[in-house]
Design goal:
Elements: H1 2-17, E1 30-36, E2 41-47, E3 50-55, E4 60-64, E5 73-75, E6 80-84, E7 87-91, E8 98-102
Antiparallel strand pairs: 1-2, 1-8, 2-3, 3-4, 5-6, 6-7, 7-8
């Protein structure tokens, strides 16, 4: 019984040392790959006050920021990217907003 208790304590200590590896936050500048819930894939490069968007298998557009630095809303009237970093919402002609995750 003592052997089992010592083994359990040792295992608990070993497992507590195994933490999830540090994952750096996504940059607020530079390219971010987005995967959206509707299957759309985007590459967004944030330069100055605009987002340069490349839609995988589609067009590339430059969207000026019509929002604020705290609540960016990049749009040209046809395409819109709301947000920046790990989460954003994408709108393209003929579709509704879709949630996107950055990586």
């Amino acid at each position: 019984m003592l052997r089992f208790t010592l083994l359990a304590i040792g295992l608990a200590i070993a497992l507590s040392a195994c933490k999830t590896p540090y994952k750096a936050p996504l940059p607020l500048n530079g390219p971010i790959a987005y995967s959206c819930s509707d299957g759309t894939q985007l590459m967004a490069d944030f330069v100055g006050d605009e987002a340069r968007i490349a839609i995988v298998g589609g067009v590339s557009v430059v969207l000026p920021n019509a929002g604020t630095p705290e609540a960016p809303n990049y749009t040209n009237g046809r395409y819109t990217l709301r947000g920046r970093g790990a989460a954003a919402n994408w709108l393209s002609p003929g579709h509704s907003f879709t949630a996107c995750r950055g990586s």
